[in-house]
Amino acid sequence: MESVQQNSTSSKAQENMKAFSKKPFKRSKTIPPPPKGEAKETKPIEKPSSKVEISQTAKVINKRKKQIQGMEPIKKIQQSLPLKNRPGIFFISGFDIKGLSSGDGGVSGMAENVPNGRHFSWKNEDQVLEEITRTSVQQPIILVGHSLGGDAAVSLANRLNSMEHGFRNVDLLVTLDSVGFDNDLIPPNVKRNLNFIGDEDVFFNDGPNIARDEDRTKVFNEIRSEMHTGIDDSKEVQKKIFSAISGTLTENRSFNELVRKFLGS
Question: Is residue 37 part of a domain?
Answer without folding.
Answer: no
